[in-house]
Amino acid sequence: xxxxxxxxxxxxxxxxxxxxxxxxxxxxxxxxxxxxxxxxxxxxxxxxxxxxxxxxxxxxxxxxxxxxxxxxxxxxxxxxxxxxxxxxxxxxxxxxxxxxxxxxxxxxxxxxxxxxxxxxxxxxxxxxxxxxxxxxxxxxxxxxxxxxxxxxxxxxxxxxxxxxxxxxxxxxxxxxxxxxxxxxxxxxxxxxxxxxxxxxxxxxxxxxxxxxxxxxxxxxxxxxxxxxxxxxxxxxxxxxxxxxxxxxxxxxxxxxxxxxxxxxxxxxxxxxxxxxxxxxxxxxxxxxxxxxx
Length: 293
Known about the structure:
The chain is mainly beta. Helices cover 9% and strands 52% of the residues. The chain has helices at 2-13, 176-183, 263-267; strands at 25-33, 43-48, 53-58, 64-69, 72-79, 86-92, 97-105, 117-121, 127-134, 139-144, 147-153, 161-167, 171-172, 195-207, 210-219, 222-237, 243-254, 273-287.
């Protein structure tokens, strides 16, 4: 009786192998750092012999990535924030499972930080974009064309500050009639709230080039705490020889947090803008010029 139960338990608990599709092969690997800790969300790109990307994905929480491919030669590129990219060449055979085992990624040198002091956001090389759902269907992409801001870099970078002011009337979705509606009292109400402002409170280093910039956004007369998921891109030199620093950032806003309910339209059954709005920033800044005395 006991042996029968053991056999039954073994039969039901044995892991099942996922079958490989007919005419394909399987490929897998585990991505880890130099301490053999798994890397979650490492980017994986698989390209064929012609250089065409055929698979793109990320590793799971255990650092594992698996896929199936047509038989042939492939290059597999691994990348992760704060680590040096890794490139492997692999052959995938029909009906066979090919494993690269554990691939260790080496830590990349940290990018140089901006010099302490005031940096002016360059509006000619900066974009403030947003993405919203329109009437519950397609996405609307837009931007704000007028804004200014200053980044104060502290000796201790985590004590740095960022202040950005955006002209709400400069909203631009590429459709004049829609833009006028967005400027109206039903939406941004630019006559009463001509500006929105973000003021940072804290810079938090999340490792590698990733930072979280925590602060307060004042929009439509309401202030809310938000966090910008930020990727620092380093230091470069502009066409006129000027020093530049750059980063990209994003966050998600809930429109009702800022009293943007637009209930008169919802009562008419028009879901003009979705409940959430994604904001994306590409920022370049140059050292603030000290006024001559």
